[in-house]
Amino acid sequence: MALTDRDRAIIEFERTWWSEDGSKESIIRERFELSTTRYYELLGELIDSDEAYEFDPLVIRRLRRLRDRRRRARFERQIEQPPAR
């Protein structure tokens, strides 16, 4: 499946969003006309996409590392906490 213009724009945004004025959430709403939830759903799909990796391997590798780090931290917190009763 080929990347759409929006897919490429999302990847390019992830490359430099911190240099923009304003919060990331407000920029997402303005630029992409998406809720942040929907944006991150699309981004999650892109992270796993071979086409996105071919388009910008550095950004995709960075996003995969961040996602994996967050998953590990969440998993470790669950192990540390006793089960709820």
| Radius of gyration based on Cα positions | 15 Å
Question: What percent of the residues sit in helical stretches (DSSP H or I)?
Answer: over 70%
Number of strands: 0
Tally of DSSP helical segments: 5
Q: What's the helix-strand series?
A: HHHHH
The structural domain count equals: 1
Major β-sheet annotation: none
Can you give the mean pLDDT? 91
What brief labels describe this structure?
85 residues, mainly alpha, 74% helix, globular
Explain what the structure shows.
With 85 residues, the protein is mainly α. It has five helices and no strands. The mean pLDDT is 91. The protein has one domain (5-80). The longest helix is centred in the C-terminal third of the chain and has 24 residues, at 57-80.
Short description:
The chain is mainly α and 85 residues long.
Explain the layout of strands and helices.
Elements: H1 5-16, H2 24-32, H3 36-47, H4 50-55, H5 57-80
